[in-house]
Design brief:
Blueprint (H helix, E strand, L loop, with lengths): L4 E4 L9 H6 L7 E7 L11 H10 L4 E7 L4 H10 L3 E5 L7 H10 L3 E6 L17 E5 L15 H14 L4 E5 L7 H6 L4 E4 L1 H4 L4 H12 L20
Helix pairs in contact: 2-3
Amino acid sequence: MARALFAPSVLGADPLSIGAAVDSLGGNFDWLHVDVMDGHFVPNISFGPGMVKALRKRYPEAFLDVHLMVDDADVLLSDFVEAGASQISVHAEAEPQLLHSRLSRIRGAGLRAGVAIAPPTLVEQLRFVLAIADTVMVMSVTPGFGGQGLIEETLEKTRDLVRLRAVEGYGYRIQMDGGINLENVARVAAAGCDVFVMGSAVFGGPDPAGYLAEARNRVQGCSDPIKLKKEAPVDVRFR
């Protein structure tokens, strides 16, 4: 199993002291996750390119993982590229006919490209972009709100993505976003997740750095239970 990556979401931090919240991690993070909401694709409104630009200035070496929960990603991609994003993930549900071109555009700008899916979306619907996706983000809560509980059934999607990656030789990382905490992080890891987005669980307590350290400790030794040969059949149509 590749080293687990932890991506604390700044959406879970106090909006009046995001810099201080990130500083409180003591550098004990791999990525910083920035949720962008437009009030249309999801009900809430959150951050824009200005937040990414500010984070890039304050943390010049950080990997900034931008998650676009927006109806029209095309009008924003250039702004987030210029702001200093390291990876941009777009939703498969937002104008799916444009998904391949959007991922190609992100990669063409020199960034990592991610595709995100909400809980009702089937993994099978991503087949046509998995060869060019650097990250596949499985939303384990309803997009648009922090502090929700993890939907356990979404772990089947990470298992399906592990199977597909093994059989087809894809190179994407599997990311999960929503409701991850110390109680379930080991189960999420065992299901095949590579990148763990954690927001309110980390920033809502008195010791964010210690919380992340304990989360890392709990995924140590967790391994993906799925062992498949290249030619093994895969059927993920119903997940």
